[in-house]
Amino acid sequence: MANTKRELFLKRRLRTRNKIKAMANGRARLSVHRSSKNISVQLIDDLNGVTLAAASTLEKGLGFVGKNNIEAATKVGATIAERAKKAGVEDVYFDRGGFLFHGKIKALADAAREGGLKF
């Protein structure tokens, strides 16, 4: 029986997340979610189960100009790096979820690295 696209996505997401949690050693996880119109990112402390910082294109000033906007993802990446520094976090694990590492996800990751996050 063939798996649906959604089932394959969920398998990829869980496989990625479980590998990251196994290697974490107390480091925070930078979790990304991308929809067709928006992108959001959270900095999560899995030991305590709390969100340390978050950023999204739904916030004022970070929104998309049009569909598939890589510039907005870059703004979100720079914003999360700035907020992570304020929270005292530099070393993180990048959790792309089930999304492929290209396009908006890659732009967000590159901007976060330029902002000072190490992963």
TrEMBL record:
Cross-referenced InterPro entries: Ribosomal_L18, Ribosomal_uL18_bac-type, Ribosomal_uL18_bac/plant/anim
Alphabetical keyword list: Ribonucleoprotein, Ribosomal protein, RNA-binding, rRNA-binding
SUPFAM superfamilies, A to Z: Translational machinery components (SSF53137)
A GO CC term attached to the entry: cytosolic large ribosomal subunit
UniProt-listed GO biological process terms: translation
Functional description taken from the UniProt entry: This is one of the proteins that bind and probably mediate the attachment of the 5S RNA into the large ribosomal subunit, where it forms part of the central protuberance.
HAMAP family cross-referenced by the UniProt entry: Ribosomal_uL18_B (MF_01337_B)
Protein family: Belongs to the universal ribosomal protein uL18 family.
Quaternary structure (record): Part of the 50S ribosomal subunit; part of the 5S rRNA/L5/L18/L25 subcomplex. Contacts the 5S and 23S rRNAs.
Organism of provenance: Pseudorhodobacter antarcticus
Record bears the keyword Metal-binding: no
Listed GO MF terms: 5S rRNA binding; structural constituent of ribosome
Keyword Membrane attributed: no
Protein name as annotated: Large ribosomal subunit protein uL18
